[in-house]
Design brief:
Elements: E1 8-15, E2 20-22, H1 29-45, E3 49-53, H2 54-62, E4 90-94, E5 118-123, H3 129-138, E6 141-144, H4 152-163, E7 167-170, H5 174-182, E8 188-193, E9 203-204, E10 214-221, E11 227-233
Parallel strand pairs: 1-7, 1-8, 3-4, 3-7, 4-5, 5-6
Antiparallel strand pairs: 2-9, 8-11, 10-11
Length: about 240
């Protein structure tokens, strides 16, 4: 898909030497320096938005909170997308059924790379209206992209058209990263490789995607034995 119709997508992740992105290795001493460098580089790369899947958003920002939606049952809502505000920096949550329990329309985080981002929920038509009414009540924006599964390309086009997002940092887990890769929507890789091999239960950078070719643009040694690798997708 041409990038003039959607954001330029940089998949920015901490990985193990063997290409895993989740697991116990992230809490090891060997990965600490790599994570610090990851956040530093995140601030350096900062575009108009970062994106994660539901599990990452809950683990990083909401702690799995589930609001009481009983007061919003039977709510009458306008059809279609809801743009609560134009903010300039966004947290994009790929969340098919509107399960992430936000309590505010902005991310509040001590890291300036995430603090003060306006939240956009990317949903399917399966998202319950009570959840949509709740998001409206706290000022969270949402867009629809697909009936049962999220259409990555459609979502990206809307993010560009409705919010002006030109560069998006993809920082999700294996599933959402794999969905972007299958859609041909990963333009660049920014990988901070920690000097550690992950355990057997750790998850890979991309889940269930086909072969694609990237060209190495940068290999930079970092403190603590980590390496920053940047690749660009071949045209």
């Amino acid at each position: 898909m041409e990038t003039n119709s959607r954001p330029y997508v940089i998949c920015h992740m901490v990985t193990s030497i063997d290409g895993k992105v989740t697991g116990q290795f992230l809490s090891s001493d060997a990965a600490k320096a790599a994570e610090e460098e990851y956040y530093r580089i995140n601030r350096k790369l900062k575009g108009e938005a970062f994106a994660c899947g539901r599990i990452t958003m809950e683990g990083s920002f909401t702690g799995g909170y589930r609001p009481d939606l009983s007061a919003f049952e039977g709510a009458e809502l306008p059809e279609g997308d809801f743009i609560a505000r134009q903010h300039g920096y966004y947290a994009v949550s790929f969340d098919r059924k509107a399960l992430v329990g936000w309590t505010d329309s902005l991310i509040h985080d001590e890291d300036e790379g995430y603090d003060d981002c306006h939240i956009i929920e990317v949903l399917t038509e399966e998202a319950p209206k009570a959840a949509l009414a709740y998001y409206r009540s706290i000022g969270v924006s949402y867009i629809f992209a697909g009936e049962h599964d999220i259409d990555i390309c459609a979502a990206l086009r809307k993010l560009r058209e409705l919010f002006g997002i030109r560069t998006l940092l993809l920082e999700g887990g294996s599933i959402i990263n794999g969905a972007f890769a299958r859609a041909g929507a990963v333009d660049e890789l920014s990988l901070v490789a920690a000097p550690v091999i992950a355990d057997a239960d750790s998850k890979p950078l991309f889940y269930d995607c086909g072969m694609s070719r990237f060209d190495l643009e940068l290999a930079e040694p970092l403190p603590g034995g980590a390496v920053w690798l940047r690749y660009k997708a071949q045209d």
